[in-house]
Design a protein that fits this description.
The chain is an alpha/beta fold. It is built from twelve helices and 14 strands.
Length: about 325
C-alpha cells in the first residue's frame, strides 16, 4: 500500500539527479502518482512508464462493480493490486496511520474509474455508492460517485429545484442551506427575485431548473480555449474548483456536488473565470453557485476572506439542490 512518498527533491539528492532529472521526477509524480520506486526508477525509462500505465489500465478495466465495492467500501481496506496502481490511502492525521481516507491515485485514474462506473447499470452504481457512503474512510470516493450520478442527471436534461442559501453573519461568516419547504412557492428565474443576498421572498421560493445542453465537453487543465452558451462544461480533474458549469438562459450556473456537511469554495475559481474566454461572460451575466446534495442533508459554505474571492461573494448567489440517486434511472 502507498501511504506517502519522499519529496522528489530529497529522493533526487539521494540519487544525485540533475535539474532536468528533478523535473522528470516531478512530472512522473504528478502524472502517475506518489510511488517512490516509479518516480526514481523510471527517470529516462519511458518503457517502464508505459508498462506501468498499461498494467494500471488493465487493473481498472477488470475491476467489476462488486470488486470496486469490496475494494474501497468494505471497511475502507484496499486489496494489494488496486492499492498499488489505482488508489491512495491519504492520511488525515500524519501521526496516526489508521486515520486515512481513500482517494484515486491521480486525476487520470479517477477519469478511468468514472468511465467504468458510469457504463454500469444504475443498480450497481447505487450499491457502490451506498457501500462507500457508509464508511468514513471511503466517503471521499462516495462523494465522487454521487457527483458522477448527479452530473449525468443534469446532462440528461432532468430537473433540479434550487433552494436559496442563507447568509449568516458573525465572527465566522458562512452560507447555510435551507430545508426544502413543504409548501412550494416556485419562482420563475433564479436571478430576478429582487434585492438582497438571494432576493425578496427567496426564503419561500424554490427555483426549478431544467437544463437542455446542446453538447457536453470535458476539458483538461484550467484553460478553456473556446466557450459556447448552452454547452455543459465538465473539468476532467476532480480537484477543480467546481464540478461543471453552463450558460443557460442568460444565467451562468456553476455546480458542485458533495455529500459532506461543509464545503469551502476555492479561490482558484476566480482565476478560472477571469481567463480571456470567460472574463466578459462572467462580468456581464448573473451567476449561481449550486451545491448538489443528498435529500435531507445540510451544506455549510464558509465565506472565505481575501481579495481573490471578494468579487465572487459580490456577484454570485448561492443555492442548494437536492438529488436522490435512487429516484433516477
Amino acid at each position: 500500500m502507498v501511504f506517502s512518498c519522499l519529496p522528489p527533491s530529497a529522493s533526487g539528492v539521494a540519487h544525485e539527479f540533475s535539474k532536468n532529472q528533478f523535473d522528470e521526477v516531478r512530472d512522473i509524480f504528478h502524472e502517475y502518482g506518489p510511488i517512490v520506486r516509479l518516480c526514481i526508477n523510471s527517470v529516462g525509462n519511458q518503457g517502464q512508464l508505459y508498462l506501468f500505465q498499461s498494467n494500471r489500465a488493465i487493473t481498472i478495466n477488470c475491476l467489476s462493480m462488486d470488486a470496486l465495492r469490496k475494494c474501497i467500501g468494505d471497511g475502507g481496506v484496499l486489496n494489494l493490486n488496486a492499492s498499488q496502481a489505482v488508489f491512495l490511502m491519504k492520511r488525515v492525521n500524519v501521526d496516526n496511520l489508521q486515520d486515512f481516507t481513500v482517494v484515486p491515485m491521480t486525476d487520470s485514474v479517477w477519469l478511468q474509474i468514472k468511465m467504468r462506473f458510469m457504463k454500469t447499470e444504475r443498480t450497481q452504481q447505487l450499491r457502490v455508492y451506498e457501500c462507500c457512503e457508509r464508511v468514513r474512510r471511503s466517503r471521499h470516493m462516495a462523494s465522487l460517485f454521487f457527483g458522477s450520478m448527479a452530473q449525468f442527471h443534469l446532462q440528461e436534461g432532468r430537473a433540479l429545484n434550487l433552494i436559496p442559501m442563507v447568509e449568516q453573519e458573525g465572527e465566522t461568516a458562512q452560507w447555510i442551506s435551507q430545508p426544502q419547504p413543504r409548501n412550494l412557492s416556485m419562482a420563475s428565474d433564479p436571478m430576478r427575485q429582487g434585492s438582497g443576498p438571494v432576493g425578496v421572498g427567496a426564503k419561500d421560493a424554490i427555483i426549478p431548473v431544467k437544463l437542455k445542453p446542446s453538447d457536453v465537453i470535458q476539458f483538461a487543465g484550467s484553460v478553456l480555449e473556446t466557450f459556447q452558451p448552452g454547452v455543459f462544461y465538465v473539468p476532467k480533474s476532480p480537484s477543480q474548483a467546481f464540478d461543471s458549469f453552463i450558460l443557460a438562459d442568460g444565467n451562468l450556473l456553476i455546480f458542485q456536488s458533495t455529500i459532506e456537511p461543509s464545503h469551502q469554495i476555492k479561490g482558484s475559481i476566480m482565476d478560472f473565470f477571469s481567463q480571456p474566454t470567460l472574463h466578459s461572460m462572467f462580468q456581464e451575466t448573473q451567476t449561481c453557485f449550486i451545491f448538489v446534495i443528498p435529500p435531507g442533508e445540510t451544506i455549510v459554505c464558509p465565506k472565505s476572506g481575501g481579495t481573490k474571492l471578494a468579487k465572487f461573494w459580490r456577484r454570485v448567489k448561492l443555492f442548494s439542490a437536492e438529488f436522490k440517486p435512487t429516484k433516477h434511472s
